[in-house]
Amino acid sequence: MSKLFPESIKRVGLFPFSLGNQGEHFFSTALKRLDDWGVDYVCPEPRSPEYRYLAASDEERARIFNTLLADESIGLLFAIRGGFGAARVLPLIDWELLLERNIPVVGFSDMSAFLLGAYGKGFRSGISGYMAESSFGDPRSTARQLAQGIKALRGAVEGKVISVPCKKRYTALKPGKVSAPVVPTNLMLLTSLMGTPWLPSLQGKILVIEGIGQDAISIDRALTQLVSAGILPELAGLVFGSFSNCDKKEYLPEIFREYSGIVDGPCFCGLQFGHEFPSTAIRVGSIAILSVAENGEVVFE
């Protein structure tokens, strides 16, 4: 039996939705670990070469995804890596088949474009969590990190709404309690979908955001855009995850607190979610409970 997925998942499809491989060493490490964990996987080779920096042409990446989706022996689809390119594939997805099969699709970062678009189409089996190569392919990962990563991802696949890899102290920003659908995403990817048909309504949702490689100014700018578009004031709650490799990060606590004041609901920061390993896995659109007490105690489940 696989350590990574429950026994009900007999076979997994690996698909390239965004950039090409980080490097043969990362990809081979990921595949070896999947083998060691007893995962039966299918990883089709693209028929076309890499297109610029993408794993293949938009049409080829969509073909691989739709082909794996149509294979009834496959019980879960697992993105290989992110970066850029997922939004380019969205018009080519067989959405009707996706809703019919309703199997988990796992990824984060650039894959947030798919998860948001799919959520807007009525898909409720998306999981914002690890990706095969970028998460499990880093040879520097320790045994403890891998064990915590397995725990978090498996918990989400088994139905846990918020599956954290380990306990961590959070920072309360605004008190309150709410039960609402949770929508996890990358902040910059979210703003890039504004004005497109792929961004679902976030009114009454608990928004969880993360980022990588942007400085505090860029994060401030993106949050300003969410305010100007009327998105932040309509949220039921707001959670700040990890913002990795951030310049001017000393300003982030002040930025998080300022924008939490605009949300009509509980807010906190410090969730272990994003471009760090291990990371929290979250089922997109499932009902979560977010409680931030006056004494600073946070419950998110």
Structure write-up:
The chain has 2 domains: 12-159, Murein tetrapeptidase LD-carboxypeptidase, N-terminal domain (Rossmann fold); 163-300, 3-Layer(bba) Sandwich (Glucose Oxidase, domain 1). The chain has helices at residues 24-36, 58-70, 86-89, 95-101, 112-120, 132-136, 143-157, 187-192, 216-228, 252-260; strands spanning 12-15, 41-42, 76-79, 105-107, 126-128, 162-163, 171-174, 176-186, 206-212, 237-244, 267-269, 281-283, 287-292, 298-300. The protein has 301 residues and is of the alpha/beta class. Helix content is 31%, strand content 21%. Helix 8 links the parallel strand 8 (176-186) and strand 9 (206-212).
Secondary-structure topology with pairs:
Elements: E1 12-15, H1 24-36, E2 41-42, H2 58-70, E3 76-79, H3 86-89, H4 95-101, E4 105-107, H5 112-120, E5 126-128, H6 132-136, H7 143-157, E6 162-163, E7 171-174, E8 176-186, H8 187-192, E9 206-212, H9 216-228, E10 237-244, H10 252-260, E11 267-269, E12 281-283, E13 287-292, E14 298-300
Parallel strand pairs: 1-2, 1-3, 3-4, 4-5, 8-9, 9-10, 10-11
Antiparallel strand pairs: 5-12, 6-12, 7-11, 8-13, 13-14
Please name the CATH topology of the largest domain.
Rossmann fold
Count the DSSP helices. Answer: 10
Number of strands: 14
Order of helices and strands: EHEHEHHEHEHHEEEHEHEHEEEE
Overall average pLDDT: 94
Structural class: alpha/beta
Percent helix range: 25-40%
Spatial strand order of the main sheet: 2-1-3-4-5-12-6
| Rough outline | globular
Q: What is the name of the CATH superfamily of the largest domain?
A: Murein tetrapeptidase LD-carboxypeptidase, N-terminal domain
